[in-house]
## 1
Amino acid sequence: MKVIEQEIAALKNTINEMWALVHQQIYNAGEAMLTGDKELAYKVLSRERRVNAFELKIDSDCEDIIALYAPVAIDLRFVLAMYKINTNLERLGDFAESIARFSVNLPEGEPIDPELVKIARVEEMLHELLSMISLTQEAFEKESSEIASRIFLKDNIIDEINHDSTPLIAQYIEAHPGSALAGLYMAGVIRKMERFGDHCTNIAEELIFYLDAKVMKHIGKTEEK
Amino acid sequence: MIKIDAQNVDFYYGDFHALKNISMQIEANTSVAFIGPSGCGKSTFLRLFNRMNDLIPDTRLEGKIFIDGRDIYSKGEKVDTLRKNVGMVFQKPNPFPKTIFENVAYGLRVNGVKDNEYIEETVIKSLKQVVLWDEVKDKLKDSAFALSGGQQQRLCIARALAISPSILLMDEPTSALDPISTGKIEDLIHELKKEYTIVIVTHNMQQAARVSDKTGYFYLGELVEYGETRKIFTNPEKESTQNYITGRFG
């Protein structure tokens, strides 16, 4: 194996590890939120530093490969895509951290109101998001742009839940004025999850750029216009 | 405007089939790089454009090559007229054992130019074109061998330009030069293509990427892929091209 191939394989391993860590972080943050498990939430907060360390390492590895090996064609697209996927994964890690903070700030011993969880469809949203990130990783590991393109459809479900949530949460707050703060927090979490879906979509776009040299950015937005 | 038009070119060294059915069009005022492993035929193809291969015994050409619409291998075409129009720069700088001034003036003198004022103007203009003038203006009567390798190579380019060609062929022009001199030649290529059509053979992939508008990838005598350099180096059509430019070849 040539040196550049070894470097690329090493970068692939590192980003795969980050991917798995970020997935675990989001899963744990969601569990902590739904069950009120503060210990788990604190665990997410402490492991966020590892996500940041991965980001710095991958940035540095990409820079080294570009500077030392002047990659071209598929190698260049790979490094550029990993550089951007790295940023998106790090943002997803930030998202897990913010959900964990929400859980930490909940009143002691009180998990979030199951009725609020149900009407905001937050569990469903979380499930979709975790499956999106699993799908992006599967697309990466199998080098399949077909799998990557399935993520765009999933993002539509996220957008729909987000769109419907505001009036539903408003109704909840009206009916439970004492839980207004929890309702507002939940609205914030839903917004973040919507952004999370966008990051997964960005990752899918980068994978398709790497694999097929196709630029998918802004295509959906253009069509909407 | 199409400057060079090669149509179904086959070339043989004796029984060896060195170029296989190559067709390529090169537009005027562009730079085109030929890349490929040693022995792939890229230099052979380049040398067909000024009929340098005519000097090699037992060679045979099939197909046609047009420059400015003229079939350069047709009967009646004069090789020396062709070579005035198609200048060439080689891998190793090869100045003549003459002064710096006379090296550049040489082409004009052998072509019968007697007007010294015109010769001087042309020498100065050519040296300025290759950005060598400021370095040599005070030592034009010194031997060309006193120049550094990079300066000698620019002198050879000036010598080629002095007889006003419209095409410049470069066969690995920087492979014997240090990075600073290489950078100067590459900058020069960008400047020169405003007035000339440049075809360069290079083993340096990054150089091909930096200096050319289009790139042709040759392998075993075939033109595997020819297209926009930007495309070749980001998303080549053929897997063979990708394997070569990414270093996974062989």
## 2
Amino acid sequence: MKQVDSINGQEFRDMFATATDWLEKSASDIDALNVFPVPDGDTGTNMLLTMRSSIEEAYRAINTSASTIVEAMARGALMGARGNSGVILSQIWRGLAQGLKDKKTFNGTDFADALQQAAIMAYKGISNPVEGTILTVIKDAAKASKVQADNGNNNLVSVMESAVEAANESVANTPTLLPVLREAGVVDAGGQGLYTIMEGALRYLRGEAELMQFRKPQIIASNIPQPIRLPQMVAADEVPYGYCTEFLLKGEELNTEKITARLHKKGQSLIVVGDDTTVRVHIHTLDPGNVVRYATSLGTMHQVSIRNMDEQYQDFLEMQKERTPEVDIATIAVVSGDGLSDVFTSLGTTAIVPGGQTMNPSTKDILQAVKAAASDKVIILPNNKNIILTAEQVKSLTDKKVEVVPTRTIPQGVAALLSFDYEADFETNARLMTEAQSTVKTIEITHAVRSAQLNGLKIKKKQAIGLLDGDLLAAGENPIAVLNKMLAKIDLSKAEIITVYYGMDTVPDEAEQVSTNIREKYPQLQIEVVRGGQPYYNYIVSIE
Amino acid sequence: MTVKIVTDSLSDITSDLAEELGVTVVPLTVFFGHESYLDRVTITTDEFYHRLIHDTIWPTTTQPPPATFADVYNKLTEETDEILVITLSSKLSGTYNSAIGAKDLVKKKCKIEVIDSETVAMGLGLIVIATAKVAQNGAKLDELTKLVRSAMTRSHFIVYFDTLKYLAKGGRIGKAQELLGSMLSVKQILTVKEGEMAPLTRMRSLGAGMDYLYNFAANFPNIEELAVEHTTTPDEADRLVERLGSVFPKERIYRSTVSPVLGVHGGPGALAITVLEAEKK
């Protein structure tokens, strides 16, 4: 590994100039991640502009001692900070400047200490720190670098490496900490931006500056996989966002704490940072006039920016729309039960039409879903024999190309959906999905709605009954006994996996008991128990 | 002078085969924490997969530095003045860039052509094998370059994943991102499309996956070469080879293990099949 024992101010500046170029390459990708605190899609750009201002100031520094350069960079960041993340970034620089004070050159240990200071300053700048953001990322990075330095590893490369590694993990973990990220299926944009800057700096230290020209920073994947691409990638809050108000306040004896206390109730995402002559203020407020009036009473305002965030948000939605790839072929499934709906959604169904046994959807219901689908080619999975014809009706009512894959049970629908071939065309897919139905057997356990004599069975009203691919084959006193009878009728020697979807009226413990029974009898099979939440059927069992 | 062929370890070409074909294989590196291993050189596939499953450290991987390629080039210039380098997809690794970057570091005069194969594993391996065979018969560089371009369009690589966890963690999931997060346990078939991993289809069971792999190969009317490889399930791969005997001579099927660097992303239980279609006459 490359060893860098210490660096001076000039190298430090070049390191972050390289990191800024690196950030520039993914600024627009980072913009697209931005959902918190306001989904206005500008985090990457804001961080980039802040870094640029910081680097410009560094080139104006009077000498090249590390402390002079870092101080200049902190000043530049403060002067040029844009947006929430930019202001927090400027705080990080301020912390670094404090940590490297009076140092002509510095080593790994010094840098790790300065990162600690940077993390502390970052938190200080925010009136209500939220975890799962850039704050968590700088904290985790600082901690890891400190551990590395304390282990006696004074080499700047390895200290930076441990910081970058920790930052990477921390970014991936942000959706775990912040629900709005989880819902949108993204990592925190500010955290990603910070990681990218640090990674760029590390690459410089490793001597990879040349190579960086050919490469691009990676956006870190969330720790929590995103099951579906929501049409709208943000939590649907109807609250207006107001105005993003930013300015630099110059005066004498300015008191950031006092300003913070005063502005605290005037809006959201308040950040007040700076010293007694220069203070940067960032706030999301419904009444910017109020804030401006207060600020002018303290000193002069510079770089004033007041932007309508609801407009920004609309732009952001437009940007997301452009980025959401249009599905080539849409699939619509008729499903009842919240658990089963989740199953179909997680497997990539474009839309769900609620319905099933005893609650058949109308042609209109299905037609609406077809019309709303973001594709002109639609495959419908009715998942019930009584709905197939209804679905067929849709074909003549729309200009879109529609195929109905005549699935009669939920497991057939799942099998059909899975067999979807991403490379194949519409007709081929319809055929593949139709064929896939035969790869699965379905057992349904329900209750008889009336007494009857069928297939040589005497059935009393409300008795548990079992169907195999729609044919009534067993009846009994309780659902489990009937399910066991049904399983005994099937040749399971060729089967590999059994999935048990239990209904809304079935308790999970009973479902687990069913799975234990099956496992004991057929140890070679893989068993999965999933809450289907479906009405009417105690169990729907798929055998593949 | 025969043209010398260079590839990287993600071609999954075994050392015996490389020697037989006169191909130089440049290893990528796999890390467990701070321990680094040269792919297939200082770590065997068995050792690696054992650690992948049992070690608490998540391995990471890195491309060879340009210097490694430069060493290889400089050594080869002692016996040739034309080198053809075929690397794995540049969208999956920076190896291609390293191979290009190393060109400036060559001391003797030598013509070096570097091609991004836009694929990986035996998808790349079969291209290299077909090219090396022709190179051994004394074909010239421009002829071989044309052959590689042609083979790239004829090489079809698909892989069965028991889990996509490893691919996602390594950041190489590409367009298959949307397959994550299924509530049921689902097996996936992926392919390489325009240099990136892309989804093909899904199924619930290994058996259905094996059927898919078999049918995939069986549907090609004219197979020039066929390769089957595994990460941790050699028996399944062998069974697949047995079955494939009905569509292609068994003894000519290349059997390989997915290299550790790729295994980091493939994870346990992955099985891959590559068809090199015959050229249309």
## 3
Amino acid sequence: MGAGYIAQQIVNGLILGSMYALVAIGFSMIYGIIRLINFAHGDIVMIGAFATLGLMAIPGVPFPLVAVMVLGVGGLVGVLIERGAFRPMRGAPQVTGFIASLAVSIILQNLGILILSAQPRNFSFPAYLQVMINLGPVSFRLVDLMIMVTALVLMLVLMAVVYRTKLGVAMRATAEDLDVARLMGIDINRTIMVTFAIGSALAGIAGLMWGGKFGQIDPLLGFVPGLKAFVAAVIGGVGSIAGAMVGGFVLGLAEVLFVGLLPPIYSAYRDAFVFSTLIVILLILPNGLFGRSSEERA
Amino acid sequence: MDLRRSFRLLILAALAGAGLVLVMQATLDDYILSIVKFVGIYTILAVSLNMTNGYTGLFSLGHPGFMAIGGYATALLTFPVERKAMFLPDLPAWLAGLALPFLPSLLAGGLCAALTALIIGPPVLRLRGHYLAVATMGFLIIVQVMITNWDSVTRGPLGLNGLAELTSLWWIYFWVALTFYVAWKLKFSSRGRTMLAVRDDEMAAQTLGVDVFRTRVFALVIGAFFAGVAGGLWAHLITAITPTSFSLVMAFNLVVMVVVGGSGSIAGSLITAVFFTVITEVLRPLEEGLELYGISEITMALILILILIYRPEGLFGSREPACLQPDEPARGERK
């Protein structure tokens, strides 16, 4: 087990982690602004993946344009969900929103099965993205590089929006205190809608990446990224954007390294390991790595 | 006065239930009877989760984990010795030579689940709210992974099959009635009020001398016991058990039943458990006939969202119908 092997595993972990981080950021933003654990977030990843598949089938649409349109599709679905399900129950106990999001998730998955059938479909990017790149001992596909670069660029853009624009101020104020933000003249409905749009757009593009990474998509694929985003967001401290990023990378690295570095008989215990680590982290840092102490209860 | 009235009510309810069992056994075919049994098991699950989740406000998604522990424990105890030798040759000697009747096995299953809750409770229950939800979900996944990999005892992903079909309607009736009795007695006892107090305002409860931590552990343990028993009943109804029998989806469904019925309302849990199980069964043939797979899930989810929008506190809130209220209304129950 040389240094090259470990370097390769770390690269794999970072690639997986950047996808987790993208999904986790949206998840965490939505939690931050209306204290909603949105389990339907993972299903937007699924919708993003299928939207990519559909758009790539149209001849003459260049791939970068597909990516931009997928961002749009994700954002649109997020806004529709917010208007249809979550806005009418704003102000209800947190558990209510959580359960409603489960219901939305079930609806999206089953609509997917109904319209697209449960059969998995092959998913492949244009050939030029499949080229292998070798950097010393480490090798990866161009897609993988693209996944990481896109993820990092989007995270930087998001940070700029949240910390450098008026909209970002409104978002942070609404997250801080919804009622006071409203008193200060912030249009909170619009702010919440935009937050959903941004978070869901990131999940949609993560769907494009998910399909490219794993090569197969089906209507139930959103469950795993949704769950992992939940875990990543909690590790980082739910509500914190930086925390969600770090949590995503930590989770991706931990998973890959656990499987890659330990003897194969333990790899069946991967998920048990992930969740045990999670519980231990929570017991030591009850609010995650970056979360502020929360005053709310179940 | 109060005691005599509720005692009479209890006898009446027990007799009515027994009569219903007799009538159903005489008139219904096997298919419908099996649905009735599932309704019963879901009722036990929803009412017991209500003690953890509803009374005390512990948002636990770990209920199926306790079911799995109870289910496997029960199945291992009822499995005939000669079949154990064939299917599970690596079983420890004391367990390999042991086969118990159904009731002690179920009790052992419930106790195993309760013991697990007692062990994981103290560390995990330091968490609150969503963090607790994540941790209990983690517990469920850890249980599944352990069961999948503990080949010598659980036969890994294959699971245990060919279990005796021991879960008769009478057993279901007995356990439903017992779960109800315990839930009802508990709710209107001083311990039950303690639980509701912890849910409603933890700090106020603590100020008044409630041992919040012990109350939370107790709520998890008692819920786990009935979940374990329900797991055993389940395994001996479908005569098989695998690591994926009790999934996160089931945890969601159970939480939905508790919340839609009203957190803390026994009657609410009962009604939603019956309603959801029956609706699913009714919609299934319809869905197959029209070849519109997934339509029943969509319908259920839409109903759920509408209920959450128009009645966010659930059908019953924390209340019970008047006939189930003891004469002296419990504190916090007054409108």
## 4
Amino acid sequence: MKKTDIKAQAESGTGESNGMKRRSFVKLLGGGIFIFFQPWDIFNLSDIALPQGRSLTKDYNAFLQIAEDGTVSCFTGKIEMGQGAITSLPQIMADELNVPLEKVKMVMGDTDLCPYDAGTWGSQTIQTFGPAMRAAAAEARSVLTDLAATKLGVPAAQLEVRDGLIVDSKNPKNSVSYAALAKGKKIERFLDVKPPVEEYTKFTYVGKSYKHSDARLKVTGQAKYTGDLKLPGMVFARILRPPSHGAKLSSVDVSGAEAIKGTQIVRDGDFIAVLNENRDLADEAIVKIKAEYTYNELKVNDKNLYDRMVGADSRANVMRTNGDMEAGIQLSDKIFESEFHDPYLAHTSIETHTALAKLEGDKMTVWAATQSPFGLQDGISREIGFPREKVRVITPFVGGGFGGKGAYQQGVEAARIAKLSNKPIMLVWTRDEEFFYDTFHPAGVIRIKSGIDKSGLIKLWDYSLYYGGSRGSDTIYDVPNARTTSYSQNMDATVIHPFGTGAWRAPNNNANTFARESQIDIMAAEAGIDPLEFRLKNLKDEKMIACWKAVADKFGYIPGKTPGGRGIGIACGTDAGTWVATIVEIKVDKSTGKVKVLRVACAQDMGLCVNPQGALIQMEGCIQMGMGYTLTEEVMFEGGNVKNRGFDSYEIPRFSWTPKMDCVILDRKDKPPKGGGEPAIITVGAAVGNAIFDATGARLYRMPMTPARVLEAMKKV
Amino acid sequence: MTANMEQKIRFTLNGKKTEITTDPNQTLLWVLRNQLGLTGTKFGCGTGFCGACTVLIDREPARSCMLPVSDIAGKDLMTIEGLSRNGKLHPVQQAFIDHDALQCGYCTPGMILTATGMLMKNPSPTRQEIIDGLEDNLCRCGAHTRIIDAVETAAKEMKGGK
């Protein structure tokens, strides 16, 4: 590596993140060797919109420290929420630096200690952050080797690294440890190009399975989540909530709440909270507040929303087009037109949105269950008016996110109450609040007009999506005439979504894959061709074909036309750079319409797999969670009033649903790593819908596929 | 709940005789978490539907978010913190680690105590009995298949130890 490739900026420290100069991090953390880096690929290739005043991500967004005791730490704004980054990232680093795995520490999600990071989502941690971190580790090794060469008086080429010890290969007694090299040093390097990294074949840890490194803490109850923290003088807060989104407070009487022992009321306009050091009394006080509201409800509910979407004044955006739709119609022997409906979904992490806020002098510290510590820092700064550098967000263990904890309203609320009361505030949203203020997966409509010729080749694919989002709306199949059009909110038009929406595990890809793969199945059935054969006939994508071969083999797939009464369904797609194919076997109770998923085989190509067991666990989690959006999950609402706000009325997958799972990860050690937290969830809905068709001849166009909807569809057969 | 006069409540907590002075109508969950510092017992829904707050009362799994603390007077209460002995994990805890039967870990204490209570009653459950026994504990990450395997393994381990 050319030394000119590395900018040594120890003196100037021009790079800033989080309002902090690199120098400040070095000062804060003491001596050692620091390597600052960023995932250059994505940041160089696209301009990611940053919050106002955040312009510094192009400099660096993480760093490594080889501390004076030889400990290797990676400081990153990414967080751990069960996806296993706390286990897999150290594997990469330990390998590149040739140190024992237990010598590697992750410091995550603390805005004072870690540089800016937009957030943990999109299955990006391993695929974009991992390679950058790996390159930084390679640079650290190079710095250490240079130091060792001087210290040991031998050329760098003659040195080997063994478990954190740099050894003269010709005289093994002549050696020096990382700790000794880092001692008394303050070396800073900034990485702006990729240095050479170790070949994957040399890896000791990467590619091997490691169990969750935080498991012991979690099985003993010692792992600290935000709600488990306690500060002297801390009080619990409950906030007065409107009965529906859009309702405005018209009158309020807090005297009933004030009568509850030890209760303090804080108020800032319509924002009213009760505080009590006893959580039960805070719960009791909040319901004693008498409040009246005025309503300005949107005339929309979970029944009419789909008609409203397709009839709305929308902005059409042709996202992709090739060939000509008219030519596609001419070339087609049969034309198929379908409309698919997908509802709002809740995230329902078992840990609700929680935050602990403490104001000390002019500094606000907030511990929060969040996927976006820096987003929360910005939010507090913007909404309460704190200078950003006076806000510190710390992220303890997060009890599930799934996209829902990208939203950080609870952290801003806790900070606001801490400022109003000058007391440490613990805010734990109730399950009701969690449902009500969730940023739901947005509902949407997808219309597809497609056509095949006499031989079963797809000649036309005209895909329109309304309000749901476009991730996963690519055709995948080799179609000469294809178009994807997205319809979204027109600036001046009536608001479509009556409440907040956001990312839900593999955002919108579940709906797009459901629509596309159902439509493919409809065409295969009409053509009288086995659905897998039909797909392979229309696919040129070699990765997808390889996934199909792997999953068919694992499942023991026997071809057959549908509906064949077997209850077997298939689907494929891509998400977060990963290719996935799934085959399911289900049983439909024809008297009740209830669907039971018996067996799921799933194959995915995710490039290099850092921690195979961790990745398998994510696939299994995706399949289990995927059955929820497929079979039961749907937010019921009337205007801004969310009607199902508990686990009794919003049903998520349970133990009795668990199918036999056979997951395969294709061996792609030679390829860069891709996302693993989301891809396998995208195919579940389509595969189950296609299996229902195979079992009964009934086609479901709407998720979730509840018993009532299955029975209704069966009547039409 | 109405704020009553505080009372003394005596019970056995994780094997130790314990006396606390508290409002007897307070919810057991919040007394454990806030007064006794036992935060392994989690708040998930507050209405008994998710199981994250499960504890063992006289060896029976119970939802601590639904019980006034006065209910434990004279009883034997076990929380996740009391399950391991002198640093040695209970077989159910060990099996959860061995099977990697957790992700975010938030539902884990409730899962482990529900499974432990089930195995105390029925040391040789069938796979279906394990599923039925865990049915009302919710996990959103989707660790179900590994949790079932872990409980099966723990059952075998515990019988072997007798």
